[in-house]
Amino acid sequence: MSEQDFSRFMDLPSPAMRNVSDMIGKVAPLGSTVFIQGPSGSGKEIVARSIHLRSSRASGPFVPVNCGAIPRELIESELFGYEKGAFTGAMRDRAGLMELSTGGTLFLDEIGDMPLDMQVKLLRMIEERSFTRVGGSKSISIDVRFVCATHRDLRQLIDEQKFREDLFYRINVFPILLPPLRERLEDIPALVGSIIKRFEAQGFPKPPALTEGALDVLKSYDWPGNVRELRNILERAGALYADRQIDGDLMSEMLFPGQPRPVTEEQDAIWDALAEFANDEPVVSDVSAEAALATMAPSDARDQSIRALLSSDGEFSLKDHIAALETDFIRIALADCDHSVSAAARILGIQRTTLIEKMRKFSIGRPD
Known about the structure:
Elements: H1 3-10, H2 15-27, E1 34-37, H3 44-53, E2 62-66, H4 75-80, E3 81-82, E4 94-95, H5 97-100, E5 105-109, H6 116-128, E6 130-132, E7 139-141, E8 145-150, H7 154-159, H8 165-171, E9 174-177, H9 188-201, E10 209-210, H10 212-219, H11 226-240, E11 245-246, H12 248-255, H13 266-274, H14 289-294, H15 299-310, H16 318-336, H17 341-348, H18 352-361
Parallel strand pairs: 1-8, 1-9, 2-5, 5-8, 10-11
Antiparallel strand pairs: 3-4, 6-7
Helix pairs in contact: 1-3, 6-8, 9-11, 10-12, 16-17, 17-18
């Protein structure tokens, strides 16, 4: 990615990400060690690369290392390199990732998963900016900037004696907290635009167009996989629906394949689905909202109202009375919630799908 690509990813509207962008701008020109904490998939490497690109080391290498992905028995030789004959199979000298990052930035991702014995060696190397290859005796000095990251709570790991406290304080020079995507849903439209532009640059077919309804679905999802999951969804959409329009229903199918849709476009899809009932004759009853509210009065007044209804002229229908009562409650709840079905269902204490069925049953449609 170019610096422009990273700037686009970081130029997001949420207060949390504006704060992150501001901190990147302040720390990037410095040589300080940066510690990024955030859940998996939230964009920690993007932040690290952005720091590198905005620093004086931008022309040097950016070397990412996933500390949790390297086998325990290989991590030392991967980081520090080794001398010929250091172990079986070491047929020649090999530079480690530390040496390869000289003049640039070494990004130690998931540092919370690093074994304790390696933490001791890493601490010394960060403090002295020098190390010795496996099987070697010569001290090698390096000029490198460290950016560390983890999704884990290092303070808790310290309490559990799984992470060294002295290493924590050594890397926690300039902390940056990256919040999960569910806490900054207002960033989704900008992220979608950035990700799609990136796909275009990678030679994807013409990307699909997302309607406002599709964006609403994305903004109502919990995103356990964070930005990485959003990127995967959009990549799948680009492969399946190139040069097509994706609406809320189609996006729901992509997020919840083969499952009942937990999210639907409130102001359009639901009312459109009910439009066929708008011209049906409503339930007819002499019972008004006023009478319905009377049933909520204190016991004596309520009993009086019921007796008046039962003794009134004409045949009394309990079924019609209950239907009218439900109709009035639903109508008033919808009006008070600006006709949001989900909000009205919460007020009425029923499931959203139940409310939709009752709206169909009682022919309650969108008002003119």
